[in-house]
Amino acid sequence: MKDKQHIELEQAKPGMSLAQNLLGIGGQCLMATGTVLTEAKLAGLRRRGIRSLMVWGTEELSPQEVAARRAAVGAQLD
Hints:
Layout (H helix, E strand, L loop, with lengths): L1 E7 L13 E2 L5 E3 L7 H9 L4 E7 L4 H15 L1
Antiparallel strand pairs: 1-4, 2-3
């Protein structure tokens, strides 16, 4: 299951992709949603003092957790 994860910059790895625009202190867009991080991009973010970002991640769920989440969503739709 793909979900958004708020992580510290130190946890970011090349190959991860941004789940929302990354804005600088002045509100300027530094990187757009969907940007795939590279080591060079991560180094640039470190230089700019960026501390955290929102990335797409994968959450491993057990079959029981998947069933419970589906049931909860189904109940909300009824």
